[in-house]
Design a protein that fits this description.
By secondary structure, the protein is of the alpha+beta class. The chain contains six helices and ten strands, in the order E-H-E-H-H-E-E-E-E-E-H-H-H-E-E-E. The chain has a single domain, classed as 3-methyladenine DNA Glycosylase, Chain A. Helices cover 17% and strands 26% of the residues. Strand 6 and strand 7 form a beta hairpin.
Length: 231
């Protein structure tokens, strides 16, 4: 099945379940949304991290399609002491050393998965952590997936925002785990669709969250005013 030209724009344009955030509307003038090409991922990692904001993450589970808009990312380079690849290739981080455009999923704290987009040429060992996404379609499935992990979660004013406003939460909602580690993002199971670039005034930068080294590096990027950013 060739999804290079995706009909998923209809879901994005007709989205009514959640209001658009300050980062911009979900409607697009370009109805032929394309998958991001390999070349997009082969650029410098901080640049990719910033440019991923506003792109659409598509997750296919059987006949259902889940769509979310990326609203927060963090860059991790090989010479970065906070990166899994800092001390070289291991069994755990092997996927990080693939060509850009693969999904690197790791297990942390003995209970959570986190999803990363591999960047750069093979052997480089760099990736972008997907920290938060804004649900667009398939919210019923995302809710069901999250409730399996958070049974006490109840509907309320911030219910939808709590679905995916963190790296572990988005993996739970989109059912991304160990099996998805190494998936090629140019395939049909999990992939990213292009969208118009955000204006620089819409993007905020800060220190990364939850690390003990490399804290001074401003490689966390998020859409200003978006309610799904993790904090």
């Amino acid at each position: 099945m060739n999804l290079s030209f995706s009909p998923i724009w209809t879901l994005i344009e007709n989205r009514k379940s959640l209001p658009p955030q300050n980062g911009g509307t979900h409607k697009t003038r370009n109805r032929n949304l394309k998958k991001l090409p390999r070349a997009f991922y082969l650029r410098p990692t901080p640049r990719v991290a910033k440019d991923l904001l506003g792109k659409h993450l598509v997750r296919r589970i059987g006949a259902r399609v889940l769509i979310a808009r990326i609203v927060e990312t963090e860059a991790y380079c090989q010479n970065d002491p906070a990166s899994h690849s800092f001390r070289g290739l291991t069994n755990r981080n092997e996927v990080m050393f693939s060509d850009g455009g693969h999904l690197y999923v790791y297990f942390t704290y003995g209970m959570h998965f986190c999803a990363n987009v591999v960047t750069g040429r093979a052997g480089k060992g760099e990736a972008v952590l997907l920290r938060a996404v804004e649900p667009i379609d398939g919210i019923d499935i995302m809710s069901r997936n999250r409730k399996h992990h958070a049974p006490r979660m109840k509907r309320g004013d911030a219910f939808e925002q709590n679905l995916t406003n963190g790296p572990a939460k988005l993996c739970q909602a989109l059912k991304i785990g160990r099996r998805e580690n190494g998936i090629d993002l140019l395939g049909d199971e999990i992939y990213l669709l292009d969208s118009p670039s955000l204006r620089p005034s819409k993007i905020a930068t800060s220190k990364r969250i939850g690390i003990r080294v490399g804290e001074e590096t401003l490689w966390r990027f998020f859409i200003k005013g978006n309610g799904w950013a993790s904090r």
